[in-house]
Specification:
By secondary structure, the chain is α+β, with helices and mostly antiparallel strands. It contains 13 helices and 16 strands. α1 packs parallel to α4 and α3 runs antiparallel to α4.
């Protein structure tokens, strides 16, 4: 038979049980108890109350006694004692799970910027910093789509100044690649140091664009016109002409613009001003459509994922271009394409847009395609800085 407990005996028993249970739990695990409301409403307590009720019923059936005759204080005490067991079990279980899943940051080292600076070559391993983390990219360098030379500019330092310039890197797929090479965290002083390097926005002076353009990347600005606007007119309005940039738009003062011409078959470099081009050569106009090689990439990606800007079908525009024939200018400077030992194969155009290493963006055309319709354009249906400023080569 169960012994009837006095109130003093009952509370002494509860206190001893609670003290024994709580003292067996390490100090760093006791934060569980700071959320009392969560503990009280947890499923464990509900199950415990059900268990107490079932136990009382079974006892009544065996003894044949009326449940109402038993001291109700006993059941309250029993519930509290058993709840202590459940709380202790739940607390220990949760703490064991925490120990099995340790703090991620505590598992890897913390480095300073001086540590990172020591790793600039394949022999020393190539480290870079992105935000508050350090990465060893040695095994990725040769696979970099932009070439080894470009990615090595960030070796031993932060890649963020370069990613601020080439913001096509600001994609989840690129960050996922970088995550594979995580080796540590950056200390706070070094984080502050690198944050100062990226405060300047290289795109702050970019021109304002038409609000109807569909933006594919903001920095550098790459955008396309809505398809219905392309179909409205044969000549694409200048403000709706699709925008394709790799770097910030350079600020050009027409009166200070100079075109330098040098290379194979030219005896000495020649410099021409914009005024020279407008007054020394006959003007020539052509109507021509320009299209980005990535146009409709979004459609292609539906069949198979393709890297690059997710262009729609609007990365194409048509304009009337006016300028001077390239052949006229080359003949003016005395160019001989078949000069002995200096045969010309390509004509290289170098722009004024450049990255933070002063490397300029450019392109070339084969000499074999040089025709009277290849022009150096300075007017395009009302040209602005976005499309070459003082001079466009075409």
């Amino acid at each position: 038979p169960m012994k009837r407990l006095s109130k003093n005996t009952l509370f002494q028993t509860i206190n001893r049980t609670a003290t024994k249970r709580s003292s067996s739990i390490p100090i760093h695990k006791t934060r569980f108890y700071t959320s009392t409301s969560t503990v009280i409403t947890s499923p464990y307590n509900t199950q415990q109350r059900n268990f107490s009720s079932q136990s009382s019923s079974s006892y009544n059936e065996q003894t044949g006694k009326d449940k109402s005759k038993l001291n109700p204080v006993f059941f309250g005490a029993l519930g509290l004692i058993l709840s202590g067991f459940v709380l202790s079990y739940q607390n220990i279980t949760e703490c064991e799970q925490e120990e099995q899943q340790p703090n991620q940051k505590g598992d890897i080292p913390t480095y300073s910027r001086h540590d990172v600076a020591k790793h600039k070559t394949a022999e020393d391993r190539i480290w870079v910093v992105y935000k508050d983390k350090v990465y060893d990219i040695t095994d990725f360098v040769n696979a970099h789509p932009g070439g080894v030379e470009k990615i090595m500019l960030a070796a031993g330092s932060s890649i963020e100044p370069f990613w601020n310039m080439y913001q096509m890197h600001n994609k989840e797929e690129i960050r996922d690649i970088l995550k594979q090479f995580l080796i540590g965290y950056l200390d706070e002083e070094s984080q502050q140091y690198f944050s100062e390097l990226i405060k300047h926005d290289p795109y702050i002076n970019d021109p304002t664009r038409h609000p109807s353009l569909v933006i594919r990347s903001l920095k550098p600005m790459n955008a396309e016109p809505p398809l219905d606007s392309l179909a409205e007119t044969f000549i694409t309005p200048n403000e709706l002409f699709y925008v394709r940039n790799h770097l910030p738009v350079p600020k050009i003062e027409p009166q200070n613009y100079k075109l330098e011409i040098s290379g194979n078959g030219i005896s000495q470099p020649i410099t021409l001003t914009l005024e020279d081009l407008k007054t020394k050569f006959p003007r020539h106009s052509v109507i021509s459509t320009i299209q980005c090689a990535g146009n409709r990439r979004s459609d292609i990606s539906k069949i198979k994922p393709v890297k690059g800007l997710d262009w729609g079908a609007g990365a194409i525009s048509n304009a009337q271009w006016t300028g001077v024939r390239l052949l006229d200018v080359l003949n003016y400077v005395g160019w001989n394409p078949n000069a002995e030992g200096q045969k010309s194969e390509h004509i290289w155009f170098e722009g004024l847009d450049q990255d933070i290493t002063n490397k300029k963006y450019g392109g070339s055309i084969p000499v074999s395609v040089l025709s009277p319709d290849v022009i150096l354009a300075f007017v395009s249906s009302g040209i602005n800085a976005e499309y070459g400023g003082a001079l466009l080569h075409y």
